[in-house]
Specification:
alpha+beta
């Protein structure tokens, strides 16, 4: 019971923190989507670990792919395959903050990839995806462009 209370408290703190200027792409050890192949979500319908052998730098982060075809597909249209909101948890962005993600917690809505922080967050996200997507879009510019950071991003001009 105490572990559940602690987890609830930490989740509350995570989402209560004010949004600060952030990097345009969420990374873990400079790997976008924690090294998972973003094209595979669309082509294989599941998360697939990428490889350094098939990597590409985009928006200051290293993107990993599971094969040369997926790498070429991403290079041809990165905006189509990159997750929304820089790969930060979409539910967090809807709540005007950011959070890390778990690559196995994902959804594709209207051809766009969204990632989530935890199973509990994803459960809430799934109850009103359209509403949370609208809120996240409304919040994203303020989060991304806070304090003059990311002025080279088209959204921040």
């Amino acid at each position: 019971m105490q572990n559940l209370k602690l987890l609830s408290f930490l989740t509350l703190i995570l989402f209560a923190l004010p949004a600060l200027a952030i990097d345009p792409i969420y990374t873990s050890r400079n790997k976008a989507v924690k090294g998972y192949d973003t094209v595979a979500y669309f082509t294989e319908g599941m998360p697939v670990k990428g490889s350094k052998e098939f990597s590409y730098e985009y928006k200051g982060a290293q993107w990993y792919f599971s094969n040369a075809d997926n790498l070429a597909t991403f290079k041809a249209d990165p905006e189509k395959y990159a997750p929304q909101f820089g790969g930060y948890c979409a539910y967090a962005v809807a709540n005007n903050t950011t959070a890390s993600i778990r690559p196995e917690l994902w959804t594709i809505v209207d051809g766009k990839l969204y990632l989530n922080y935890s199973k509990g967050v994803q459960k809430r996200w799934n109850k009103d995806r359209a509403g949370y997507i609208a809120e996240a879009h409304a919040n994203w510019k303020g989060i991304l462009c806070a304090k003059g950071k990311n002025s080279d991003e088209p959204l921040c001009e």
